Each structure stands twice: as C-alpha cells, then as structure tokens.
Amino acid sequence: MDPLHLKYFRFSGRVIALALMHKVQVGIVFDRVFFSLLAGYCISLEDIRDADPYLYSSCKKILEMDAEAVDQDALGLTFVHEIEELGSMKIVELCPGGKSLIVDSKNRDRYVDSLIQHRFVVAISEQVSHFAQGFADIMSCRQLQRSFFGCLEPEDLDRMLYGSESAISVDDWKANTDYHGFKETDFQISWFWKIVARMSAEQKKVLLFFWTSIKYLPIEGFSGLASRLYIYKTSESVDRLPSSHTCFYRLCFPAYPSMTMMRDRLHIITQEHVGCSFGTW
Fold first, then answer.
1. Whole-angstrom Cα distance, residue 44 to residue 31?
2. What are 160-212's pLDDT values in tens digits?
3. Distance CA 249, CA 259 (A)
4. Which positions are annotated as active-site residues?
5. Please, are residues 123 and 83 in contact by the beta-carbon 8 Å criterion?
6. In this structure, which of 12, 49, 131, 175 has its CB flanked by the most CB atoms within 10 Å?
7. Where in the numbering of this chain does the HECT domain appear (predicted)?
8. Which of 132, 162, 192 is at the close of a domain?
9. Helix (H) / strand (E) containing 251
C-alpha cells in the first residue's frame, strides 16, 4: 500500500469541499457506506447491499437460516474474519476469543453486526478520518462537516457533485451565451449553433470542456453555472483554430468566411485528445 495514501484521502476531502463550495460538478457519486460514516451514522446490513452484494447475501442467509440447523453448527463459523494484508491472508478475531466462539442462533445477529463493523467501519476508519479532516480543513470545523453530511440524503449529494445526466440542451446553451465583437444575427453565430446542434453528445461535452474546463453541468443546466458563457470575435487569421479562456468561460474565434470552414475548425477541437489540450487560462 502506498505510504502516502492517507494523505491522498485528506487531499480528496479538501477537493470535494472546494467543489461543493464553488458549485463545481466533478462527476462522482459517493459510496453509501462512506457517506454514512462521514455523517456519523451506524452501519447496518441494509447499508452494505450495494457496496458488497455477496457479503450482504451471505449475511442475509445466516440470519434467515433455520435456528435448529444453525445450532447444529451447520454454518461452521466462528467469530473471525479473513482479510488480505500485503498479499497474504490473515485471520482477525471479531471479538476477544473469537476463534473459539461458535456462531449459533443466539449470537448470529451479533456475528453479522461484528462482521459488518469490522469490514466497513474498523477496516477503513483511518481513511475516513483523513478524508473528513481534509473536508474540515476547508469548512474550518470538523463538527460542521458531520452536520453537513447529516442533513443531506445521499441522492442530494450525488446531484451536487455529479451534476445532470440529461443530454446537453443547445437551446439552453444558446440562451446562456453572450457575444463580444459578434452580434446574435451574424452569419458566424448562426452557423456556430447549427454546427453545435448537429454534434454528437460526446462532441458537445468536449466542446463544453474546451470552452469552460467543465465536464458536467449542474442540475439547473447552464443557468446553474457561476457565469454566463461568452463568444469573442478575434482579429486573427481565419486559418487559426478557436481558442478559449476557460476561467472566464470565453470561446474565441475569427469571422470564418463559410460554415464549412467553421465546421472543420470546430471538428478539430472537438476531438477528445485535442479538446482537452488546447484552451488557455
């Protein structure tokens, strides 16, 4: 394991806090168990359904088995948990004397709970703690961090961090764009929106990233961004490709003399390997 990995968790906590503060969508969703730990909730069997379907199913079977069969040691289990550590398997007791404590119908609830707590709480406590500390570094208060997660539903946080899954609306895009040097009635602006409307969904995403460095729109669409978008007319040669000032949401290009030339120039910058490397700050 990378010795710096805990620092990465703290750094990640800071990044997520900053993203939330500045309403930047980063295209991720939180694991429900991780979210619950940050909120200070207890982890139950139902919480791990998506995180580990196999363990969830196994635990459900243990709890639902006939009590008489369990008491006849049909499970063959004791209060231990096998984990992988540095490439080798290691047996960990779930309680003092766990190796000799047989799981029966009276203690199987305790066994399942102990297994879940070890697997999803104890085993990752350091990572969660460092992430929470990084988050608190930005929020300036560890208690505020816990209150923040506690007042949200996981789905709320997903919407805030992941953003909209809807297709990019060209009409919305156009309604939230202003022009400098061009007028909305200019041929070049008319051509531009016609070309964008005919782009594939992926090309639109690449163009948006080239223009703003944003990959994911907020739930509100373009109106939810920190600023309106701008198209600037430049005095450069029409041989030049469009450029951008991503911090200011500016797309810049000269007055191309034909729709075909504009389409060709835009096609170049909407290739993923190009669109992510042009653009200027």
1. 14
2. 888 777 889 999 999 999 999 999 999 999 999 999 999 999 999 999 999 99
3. 23
4. 247
5. yes
6. 131
7. 1-281
8. 162
9. strand 250-253
